[in-house]
Amino acid sequence: MSVDDLVIDVRNASVRYRVPHERIPTFKEFAIRWLRGRIEWREFQALTDVTLGVRRGERVGIIGRNGAGKTTLLKVIARVLRPRTGAVRTHGRIVPLLELGAGFDPELSGRENILLNGSMLGHSRRYMQARIPAIVAFAGLEEFINAPLRTYSTGMVARLGFAIATDVEPDVLLLDEVLSVGDVVFQQKCMTRMAGFRAAGATFLFVSHSMGTVLELCERAIWIEAGRIRQDGPAPAVVAAFEAAMGMGVAAGASLAASGGG
Amino acid sequence: MTSLVLHSAREIVAYRTLLGNLVERDLKVRYKRSVLGILWTMLNPLLMMIVFSIVFSHVFRFTFEHFVVYFLAAYLLWNFVAQTTSWSTACLLGYAPLIRKVYVPKAIFVLATVLSGLVNLVVSLVPLAAIMIAVGHPLRPALLFLPVPILLAVMFAFGLSLLLAGICIEFNDIVQIYAAVQMAWMYLTPVIYPADAIPERFRWMIRVNPMYYLVEMFRTPIYSGSLPSVPISAAAVLSAVTMLVAGWWLFERRADRIAYLV
Question: Is A116 within 8 Å of chain B by CB?
Answer without folding.
Answer: yes
